[in-house]
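Task: sequence in, structure out. Protein: Phosphoglycerate mutase.
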Amino acid sequence: MTKTLYLMRHGQTLFNQLKRIQGSSDSPLTDKGIADARQVGAYFKENEIHFDHAYCSTQERASDTLELITNQPYERLKGIKEWGFGVFEGESEVLNPKIDPVRQSHGEFFVQYGGESDVQVQARMVRTLTAIMDRPDNQQVLAVSHGGATFMFLRKWLSMDEIKRQKIVLDNCAVLKFTYEDGKFTFQSIRNLPTN
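Result:
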C-alpha cells in the first residue's frame, strides 16, 4: 500500500535571519517564522490534508513550527535533527566551506570539527523516516525537520541534476511530498510559501 510523507523545513529563526550556522544549536522562530508556519497550517486545513501521525526533530525550532501547524499529539525524534556542524555552529554562514564538486555537498568537512558528514546525515534521515513509514498505522505523516538534513534525504531519492532541473529550493517552511512503498520514497512535489 502506498503511504504519504509530508517532510517540512521549520520556520525562519533568528539564526536564519542573521545568516548564522545552526546545526544542533538552536534559536527562536522570528515573527515571520511564526506567521509562515501558521500559513502552512492554514493551507493543510483548507486543502483537507490530515495526518494520522506527526513528528519533529528534538530541536525547538522544529517542535515550535509543528505546534503552530497542528494541535495534534506528536513525537520528537533525534534521527531527523539538523546536520551537526561541530564548532561552526553559531558562526557566520560565510565560514561554510565550498561545495565538494564530486559529492556536491559539504562532504566530510565538518567531521574534523566535531560535526557530521553528508553520508551520516543522509543515513540517519533515511533510517528514521523509513522506520516511521513502516509503522502499520502510519498512512499520511507530517515530519518537521531542517534544511541540511532534508536536503540530504532528498538527495537519496533525486540526483543533483534532477534537483537542479526541477529548481528545488528548500526555503523555510518548504513542504516536500513523498510517496512511500516497499522501503522506497518517491518525490512528488515541493511547496514553498509565496515570497512577499
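The first helix runs from residue 14 to 18.
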